[in-house]
Write a structure and sequence with these properties.
By secondary structure, this protein is an alpha/beta fold. It has 20 helices and 17 strands. The termini are far apart.
Length: 530
């Protein structure tokens, strides 16, 4: 209501009753046309006539949109949250009914968050522009957030309410998302202007750039912020076609959009109208007028043109993977006047001319090092898994290596010789402690490797394979229980919390199975083991 206007009924000068006209609360087109007022130490009466005096309240047109709690430099910033902010929410809750942002600072450290966030959901605001190194300071977050134009933009276009966990979670864009999305939108605006002025061709206008934000930095939410702002600020009924190359990615991104109410929730047993189920269904959807469409690149299995509309923006997730080959060409033939922006967590190689030719150069960059420095992503390490687990890995016997190197297909005698040689270390390789440790590590690695797809574990023999299945299943259930507990306790940041909840759903849906070929006397072997 604050963004779109408050519906009111009133009587005009002629005595006529005018119903449901919208009363505009803020001027979002000209931020300076609003009244900004910061008040220090304002006494507020709350529950049971108890009073509290917040450090700073920021009013815009009389609405308390900003709350700032300050602590002495020698005190932990977390105290501002635990000792003050939570108390104010309990005693003077009405102050926060219209709140947009909460800023906590002790002078040395400053963070911004929402009224639903736990302390670890609050994040730093270190930059005004993307090229800056970033400084954690009170004046930086004040200028970065509270400058009038940025404040109204952040309030209008960079707040989401996620309901995918069964409760409302208020999300505020992070610093890199706010900067990156606005850079992308500025680029789109400039391309439109240059095309109208005859400075660039239609082909160049269609290249909206590459949005490279490293894995784990919230690209899906950045997509939502960008789309929602374009729908709100641009003239014309835009359609966004979100294209991925994997079912899991398609489901994840749709889950993000539906969680914040941008698109309908998918209900079990029903087909969603804006998620392509086949190439034929995709053709039908592209011929209609939708705000959003979601599809795998594989659904573009047709060659005909569908529409000449220019107000279509194709968002290609993992752009370097989805834009090569005949399917991508089919997509461009189907939508000859659409524009394309690529989102990716992987930097483009110097010789990757295909991606540049399709999308143009980078429109925003948020690399892995900067993400780690900002605490948005955990550091990445190469690990020798066996050494990490403290396992004894016997060296491959030289005789075994010679047999394997010189014979592509082993006859029965040679196979028996290999089995005999391996048998010397078999008890070490298949020890319960060793297999259990490996199984635990396999579960962790599968769930945290970043790529959500299939995996194959190759074991020494059939018996070991079945043992590993049992160990992996046990640790799988333990991992699910641990993740459920962490989500319930709100261990993660707000965007990460929602992502983890979707990951948990994916983990629960994952199937684990044993695949072996048959052989003689295998039943007897398993009976002996049992």
């Amino acid at each position: 209501m604050l963004k779109d206007g408050i519906p009111v009924d009133f009587t005009n000068e002629k005595g006529e009753l005018i119903k449901e006209r919208k009363l505009k609360v803020f001027d979002f087109e000209d931020a300076t046309n609003n009244d900004f007022l910061a008040v220090r130490q304002l006494w507020i009466e709350g529950k049971s006539r108890r009073e509290r005096r917040p450090d700073i309240i920021g009013f815009v047109n009389g609405i308390p949109l900003l709350f700032i709690e300050l602590k002495a430099v020698h005190k932990k910033l977390e105290n501002a949250y635990n000792d003050n902010f939570t108390d104010y929410k309990d005693v003077i809750p009405k102050l926060f009914h219209l709140n947009a942002f909460v800023i906590l600072s002790n002078g040395m450290e400053s963070r911004i968050g929402s009224i639903t966030g736990k302390y670890n959901h609050f994040h730093e605001w270190k930059r005004i522009t993307e090229d800056e190194e970033g400084i954690v300071a009170l004046d930086k977050i004040i200028v970065g957030v509270c400058e009038k134009n940025r404040f109204m933009d952040l309030f209008e276009n960079f707040i989401l309410f996620d309901r995918s966990l069964g409760k409302v979670v208020k999300l505020i864009a992070r610093n890199h998302q706010f900067i990156g999305v606005n850079k992308a939108i500025d680029n789109i605006t400039q391309k439109e202007k240059d095309f109208k002025d005859g400075k660039i061709s239609l082909e160049e206008k269609q290249k909206l750039g590459v949005f490279w934000h490293t894995q784990g930095s919230g690209k899906s939410y950045s997509m939502v912020f960008m789309c929602q702002k374009i729908h709100r600020k641009f003239f014309g009924s835009y359609t966004f076609v979100v294209v991925t190359d994997r079912n899991e990615l398609d489901k994840q991104i749709y889950g993000t959009f539906s969680g914040v109410g941008a698109v309908p929730q998918i209900k079990a047993g029903t087909k969603n109208a804006i998620k392509a189920s086949s190439g034929k269904n995709l053709q039908e959807l592209l011929g209609q007028d939708h705000r959003y469409l979601f599809s795998l690149i594989h659904k573009f299995n047709f060659e005909e043109k569908i529409t000449d509309r220019e107000n279509i923006i194709v968002i290609s997730d993992e752009a370097h993977r989805t834009q090569g080959g005949s399917l991508a060409l089919n997509m461009r033939n189907a939508l000859p006047n659409a524009s394309f922006i690529g989102f990716t967590g992987t930097p483009l190689f110097k010789d990757d001319e295909l991606t540049r030719r399709i999308f143009g150069d980078y429109v925003s960059k948020y690399n892995f090092k900067r993400s780690v420095d900002d605490g948005a992503t955990v550091p990445l390490y190469y690990e020798n898994r066996g050494e990490y687990l403290g396992l004894k890995n016997p060296e491959l016997n030289k005789q075994i290596r010679e047999v394997l190197d010189t014979h592509e297909d082993l006859d029965s005698d040679q196979l028996s010789r290999v089995e005999q040689l391996i048998g010397r270390d078999y008890h070490i390789l298949t020890a319960k402690k060793r297999l259990d440790a490996i199984a635990k590590d396999v579960v962790w690695h599968f769930c945290n490797r970043g790529y959500k797809g299939k995996a194959m574990f190759v074991a020494l023999d059939k018996l070991t394979t079945v043992k590993m299945y049992n160990y992996i299943t046990q640790h799988w259930n333990e991992y699910v229980a641990k993740l459920e507990k962490e989500i319930e306790k709100g261990k993660y940041g707000d965007q990460e919390l929602l992502t983890k909840a979707r990951e948990l759903e994916w983990i629960k849906e994952t199937e684990i199975a044993v695949v072996v070929s048959s052989e003689q006397n295998e039943i007897q072997k398993f009976r002996k083991w049992i």
